[in-house]
Amino acid sequence: MSRADRLALFLSLIAILVTYGVEERVFERLPHIEDEMAFVWQAQAIAHGHLTYPSPPDPKSFLVPFVIDYQGQRFGKYPPGWPATLALGIMVGGRAWVNPVLAGLGIWLTYRLGKRLFSTSVGLLAAILSLSSPFFLMNSGSLLSHPLGLMLSAAFALAWLEAWDEPRLPRWLPLSTAALCLGLLALTRPLTAIGVCLPFIPHGLHLWFKTDRIGRRHLLFFSLGVLALASLLFVWQFSVTGDPLLNPYTLWWNYDKVGFGPGVGRLEGGHTLHQALINTRHSLWVGWHDFFGWGSYSWAFLPCGALAVLRQRRWKSLPVLGVFPSLVLVYMAYWIGSSLFGPRYYYEGLYSLTLLSAAGIAFLAGWPTHEGASWPMYQGWRRLRPLGSTAILALLLSANLLFYTPIRLGGMYGLYGVQRARLQPFLVAQSQGLTPALVIVHPDHWTEYGTLLELQDPALSTPFIFAISRGPAADAALAQHVPHRKVYHYYPEEPWGCYVTPVSKIDGEP
Asked: How confident is the model at residue 504 (pLDDT cuts 50, 70, 90)?
């Protein structure tokens, strides 16, 4: 292992610690948005050996966002790849470490891609840009599926290059790895998998006509392997819905589909190209702030990177660099954009931006942009080129880390009112005397109820189980279904009091 490899490994370890710090300090190891809550529910179910559970009595009272009740069964709407991965973390007691570890792997793979496509210096620069990215830190510190997607996307790209660009191993081994990664990505984020593989299709077609019979056989086996793994998505859909072609997304919102036209999206006439352009423009506007935290100029080094690719004819980098624009294009077919965590639908293509930006920085500074090139020795005023480029980069990184990133991450603390302090009233010793209990929550906002789901399992077997109030009649009927539990009413604005009847806080008895 070279000195640069050890430095990249060190950056990967730093990424694990930093992103865990974001998860601990900013997100408090809690799900904050509906997607995360559904992922946690699904992961808990899988950790206990279930894809579905029988629907509880009055399912609307036991609401879990994006968890569906259909034909008497309850299951999450999301594909199984990420919940199964998160379940592994739950089983070993390390749920909070899953995404940070994946983030560290993402940094390492980004470095390896940069080293293979350009040079060691470009790989290290790309790793540093990724690690300093507020976009990377936000998503890697969450409970969302994107860090797994980034790792699988980058591993697929690296394995594909290893198979066809001067392979050092028997070709079947990296191709099997590439097929495994792309297939698992399809089981995690199917539309993302399409966006990731699209830029590699022209290369694959070129290889098909250029290579020999053995090479075509390898390509065929790769394609069949990806299709076999991806087809498990239909097996999963059959397992939870009874219909292999029924997308669970449409059971929550019947308009939650990919495509254009009537019935797609929330607009009266359906999703349109005009709306897609609006969504994309807004997502990218947020992204150019969040990618590197350089105001709206995160794209600043991309033109120089493109110039470096063209001048040095680094054509083999084009599929990898094309992943990000491919994801932008593919997600135009989805009816909603993304901005809360940055344009997270493009997260799995982040390495395209960091690699091209790193190549641009190296090109400006006169550093090697292809492996084997020597470091130039500048004399006189020519030394201003590397010194000026280094100074500009240091200024941008410092401005991001000192100003933009703390403000951006700080703004995510307590997102939608979700805070670990809201769990504390049910964790103190005095509360255990109230169990087993059904707590009917009367929230001002649904996330006050959603936060408490952290204390509840999918089987509703925990000491406290929580229901959201749906009115006196529904609440009273619900209590009849759990005669073995004490029933309390809880008002989040008065967190330390539980009431035996749903009365006002002034008149009620705690």
From this structure: low
| 492: its two tokens | 């989040």
Environment class of 394 (CB within 10 Å of its CB; exposed 0-12, middle 13-18, buried 19+)? exposed
> Would you say 22 and 29 are in contact if contact means Cβ atoms under 8 Å apart?
no
- Please state, for a pLDDT cut of 70, what percent of the chain lies above it: 99
**What pTM value is reported for the model?**
0.94
**Rounded to 5 degrees, what angle do the CA atoms 386, 392, 395 make?**
135
Paired sense of beta strands 53-54 and 73-76, if any = antiparallel
- Give pLDDT tens digits for 374-393: 777 777 777 788 899 999 99
Peptide bond into 436 cis (omega under 30): yes
Q: Which two tokens stand for residue 336?
A: 């909603």
* Residue 230 to residue 182: CA distance in whole angstroms: 8
> What are residue 342's DSSP bridge partners?
340
Q: Which helix (H) or strand (E) holds 138?
A: helix 134-140
Q: Looking at beta carbons, which pairs linking 218-222 to residues 24 or more positions away fall under 8 Å? A: 218/163, 218/171, 218/172, 218/175, 221/172, 221/175, 221/179, 222/175, 222/176, 222/178, 222/179
CB contact at 8 A, 326 and 252: no
Of 331, 321, 99, residue with least CA distance to 192: 331
Residues 185 and 156: beta-carbon distance below 8 Å: yes
* Number of other residues whose CB lies within 10 A of the CB of residue 352: 27
